[in-house]
Amino acid sequence: MEAWDPQNLVLPEVGKLRRSQSEYLDHHFNTQLDVSSSSTPGSCLLSEWTDHCSDYDHRLRHLRTTLMELTLSWISPSFRAKASLANLKLTLSASSPHGTALQRLLAEELPRLALQLDRIHSIRQYVETTLRLEALVGDLEDAVFYSENHCTGNMFTKFSTSLTSRVLVVREERLLQAIKAMNDIEEIIVNVEKSHRWHHLLVSVDHRVDKTLAVLRPEALVQHRALLASLGWPPKLLTSKVENGGVSKFPNTLLLMHGDEKKSYAQSFHLLCALQQLHARREARKFKTSGQQECEMQLWAIDELVSPLAERMEYHFLKWTEQPEFIFALVYRVTRDFMEGVSDILQPLIDAARLTSYSANEAWVSAMVHILSGFLTKNVFPTLAERYKEKDMKLEVIPLWFNLVDLIVGFDKQMQSLLRYETCFLFPDTHRYSKLSRGMSVLVVFCDRPDWLKIWAKMELKDGWKKLKAVLKDARAWQIDDKHRVDFDVSSVCGTFLLSSREAHKAPPIAESALKIAQEMMDRCETLPVILARAKFVRSTVASFFWYFSNVLLLHCKNAELSPENIDDGVALVRACESINAARYIESKLQEWSDDVSFLEMKIAENNSNIHGKDKCFTSDCFFGEEIKCLAELETNWLMEVVAVLLRQFENLTLEYNHHLDDYIDEDQNTTPNGDPAMSGSLIEALHALKNHLNVLMKNLNRNDFLDLWRSVAEGLDHFMCGSILASDVRFSRKRSSLFAADMQALFLVFQPFCARPQAFFPCIRDILKLLKMSGEEVKQLLLPAFCKQLGGLPSLLVFARRVD
Fold first, then answer.
1. CB atoms within 10 A of CB 659
2. Taxonomically, which superkingdom (predicted)?
3. pLDDT of the residue at 141
């Protein structure tokens, strides 16, 4: 690069200079003299510019040298890489002219290289993550064990004597520091689980954190208990009479806190909530990883309130084991009296801790229910269950067991009434509500002990059967009220009747009694919190009870001894109607119950648990499907039995009519006023008996079943009369045809009260009457070979047409 020479400089034109340049020149060259090279300003300015140019020239030389060095440093590896690739190409070309080795390199070696690079990257991430976790776990252990080793004083003594404010502040700071460290650790673990499978690292960290939590949680709980003790919790469970004769409420320590006490309790409450929230988060992650379900947890802070109360109440419980109503009354009263403090003091603290899924009232009530269920499980039900196994003690245990169950059912309703305005009941979420209901019912003791549930179900079933037998002893249990024996509605012959009440079904009172007993069984188990346990109980009690009752209905029908010989007085038919109506009514009620949401849930729970396996008896989509099927079969079978008895009696009474039809055609045959032949005398008794039986059935049988019955009777008579005529060899003269038409019109009149056009239900007889009304030419036309060929042969009615004169 050549040196800069001022003599060779060509100045630009004045008009092409920038404004800043013009101002600079005007500032340094005010006169013509300043422009001369010998002037002082000009020489100084020239010297300054020369120095600047030399400096810039030096910098450019240094920059060029640096760029050259960088370029050479890049070109050198590039040349080496190029040479290596060239050598590799020559090697590959020499070993394989067709390039298969290069393809193998690209297909195998390069992916392996990529995997190795990825492995190196993973190792680097693993090391960095391990170092971060080690640092956080170390900080956590330092915070916890430092707090354990350096905080003096007995934690179980009164707050005012040992837990000074300074020690309390130090412990709270250490606890907050530990919680923050565990939250940071949990964040890293969650991220690692999403992107990596470092199982051993996570297990190691979880083990150390759990070990630390095992120390931290008891320390925090002990600190909280000491604070509660200093506040005077739990209060005494003693009250005195007030002036108006009532009983005063228990003193509520929560409402008596003020100033520093309230502030200290709030801080301790928040620390426990934060620790529990962290614990719940860790447990949820572990359960999710292992495929298990997370269990609903109580609030630790509220459990610490309930625990000392439980110790005081248990003293009274043990004195009242023979009077359990006092136990339930005490628990309900304590729960209700402290509800105000729980709602006003604890709920704002829970909201401030951002525990959005928790309610103070729910947690309080659930904890009190847990106290009572725990005492019953430990001290009451085991004794009763053992005594029930002894034959001599069963009769004594059953009323005690029932009394206890009744108290539990009433207590559950009382406790739920305390939460009637909670969002879980106003806008229930299915998953949360199912968990909450488990903690709101003392009946949970039966869900945890299936053997006790089985004993209870046996007691309920025996008691229900005993009640039913007492009702059966009353002769009025099977009687159908006369006011409900209404006439048949002809307008509804083409459809079915809507039967809703017992009166509409014409069911006897015994059916209503059976349903009432079953309903009482279901009411007792309504608050069973586990759906599957409730389904088992209903299967063992209500379903079994209706199986027994169906046998009662069957036996009642069999005792009627239906036969063509003993139905003339109508007693046997009425007894059959009573059982059929009862079966129809109970069937409709069971279908109605099965359509209820609670029974749909139980059926779904059974299907999901596969409790019945591949048993064909439980494949119905309806909860009471098998019981409904059994009752429907009983109803259908005995309807057909009644139809068969009516048809057999009609056949017996018309034997003479069918076999000796010629003997009743003579010159002295009675005629109607119009000159037409009157009906045959041998048919009068059969039609009269049929009419009487149908009238009895119409008054005593429910409308839907009677509709099916008289149609079945009509169909049977149609086939019977047609078959009898076709089987005989009698030829039909005009006179004989008129007599047969009169007989059939009399038969149609028997069914006239039940439909507008009874002949429509006798298609075979109707066709025969049409043939008898045809002229001789029309009959001959039917017998033509061409017409018979179109019909595919010679139908039976055309055979009968040959006998028409």
1. 12
2. Eukaryota
3. 83
Residue 738 confidence (pLDDT): 83
Calpha distance 744→677 (Å, rounded) = 12
User: By mean pLDDT, which of 173-187, 257-271, 425-439, 644-658 is the weakest?
Assistant: 425-439
Could you give the CA distance from residue 338 to residue 137 in angstroms, rounded to a whole number? 41
| 649 half-sphere exposure, CB direction, 13 A CA radius | 23
Closest among 272, 74, 320 to 175, alpha carbons compared: 272
Instruction: Kindly give, in sequence order, each residue whose CB lies less than 8 Å from that of residue 51, ignoring residues fewer than 6 positions away.
Output: none
Report the half-sphere exposure of 752 (CA within 13 A, side-chain side).
8
Query: Where does residue 359 rank: exposed (0-12), middle (13-18), buried (19+ CB within 10 A)?
Result: buried
At which residue do the structure tokens 């067991």 appear?
401
Residue the block writes with tokens 């729970």: 605
Render pLDDT for 696-718 as a digit per residue (tens, 0 to 9): 999 999 999 999 999 999 999 99
Question: What secondary structure does DSSP assign to 507-570, as a single string?
Answer: --HHHHHHHHHHHHHHHHTTT-S-HHHHHHHHIIIIIHHHHHHHHHHHHHHHHH---TTS-TTS
Tell me how far the alpha carbon of residue 781 is from its chain's centroid. 71
What is the rounded distance in angstroms from the CA atom of residue 48 to the CA atom of residue 44? Answer: 6
Q: Is 125 exposed, middle or buried (0-12, 13-18, 19+ CB in 10 A)?
A: middle
pLDDT at 170: 75
Q: Based on the number of CB atoms within 10 Å of its own CB, is 478 exposed (0-12), middle (13-18) or buried (19 or more)?
A: middle
The sign one gets for the Cα dihedral 643, 645, 648, 650 is negative
Q: pLDDT at position 32, please? A: 66
Q: How far apart are CA 6 and CA 780, in angstroms?
A: 146
Q: 1: how many CB neighbours lie within 10 A of its CB? A: 7
**Smallest Cα–Cα separation from 645: which of 590, 693, 581, 577?**
693
What is the model's pLDDT at position 661?
56
3-state secondary structure string across 598-665: HHHHHHHHHHHHCCCCCCHHHCCCCCCHHHHHHHHHHHHHHHHHHHHHHHHHHHHHCHHHHHCCHHHC
Task: Please list, in sequence order, all residues whose beta carbon lies within 8 angstroms of the beta carbon of residue 737, skipping any fewer than 6 positions away.
Answer: 772, 773, 804
Nearest to 519 by CA among 586, 447, 603, 614: 586
pLDDT at 109 over 50: yes
Whether the bond between 97 and the residue before it is cis, its omega within 30 degrees of 0, is: no
- What is the per-residue burial (b if ≥16 Cβ within 10 Å, else e) of 301-328? bbbbbbeebbeebbeebeeeeeebeebb
Whether residue 33 is predicted with pLDDT greater than 80 in this model: the reply is no
Assess whether pLDDT exceeds 70 at residue 734.
yes
pTM listed for this prediction: 0.74
Which amino acid makes up residue 334?
A: V
What one-character-per-residue DSSP string does 465-484 give? HHHHHHHHTSGGGGPPPGGG
Instruction: For residue 757, report the phi and psi dihedrals to the nearest 5 degrees.
Output: -130, 80
Query: 416 burial class (0-12, 13-18, 19+ CB within 10 angstroms)?
Result: middle
CA geometry: angle at 559 spanning 553 and 565, to 5°? 130
Q: What pLDDT, in 10s, does the model give residues 625-684?
A: 999 999 999 999 999 999 999 999 999 988 877 765 555 444 445 555 555 566 777 788
Q: Which contiguous run of DSSP H or E holds residue 285?
A: helix 259-290
**What's the DSSP call for residue 804?**
B
Quote the tokens at residue 141: 């252990």
Condensed to tens digits (0 to 9), the pLDDT of residues 51-66 reads 778 777 777 777 677 7
Confidence at residue 663, expressed as pLDDT on a 0 to 100 scale: 52
At position 253, the amino acid (one-letter code) is: T
- Cα separations (Å) of 25 from 327, 421, 473? 108, 89, 133
Structure-block tokens of residue 145: 């064990």
Residue reference for tokens 């990529």: 114
